[in-house]
Amino acid sequence: QRVLVLTTPGGLTVLADHLTRAGACVEVVEAYALRPRAAVDIRHDWAAADPVAVVVTSPRSAGVLVDAIG
Asked: CA 65 from chain center: how many Å?
């Protein structure tokens, strides 16, 4: 099976690694880049949303969020 995995520069390779070990022919393409918003904007939107819970699927996104809201 051929699989294309889209990632960011320096992104995690867990999915590609697991697919390769499972026998897939994996092509990894850096297709986008994470450009965090200004911390003040993130804090504003966080306060406005007043979330009870949050799901973050990226370590980099988690870091940006923690840096912005503490």
From this structure: 12
Cα dist. 8→3, 18, 26 in Å? 16, 18, 16
Residue 38 has what pLDDT? 96
Q: Which helix (H) or strand (E) holds 15?
A: helix 14-21
34, 20 contact by CB (below 8 A): no
Structure token digits, residue 21: 């070990």
Integer Rg of the chain from CA = 16
pLDDT digits (tens, 9 = 90+) for 36-61: 899 999 999 999 999 999 999 888 88
Taking each helix axis as running N to C, give the angle between helix 39-49 and helix 59-69, from 0 to 180 degrees, rounded to the nearest 10: 90
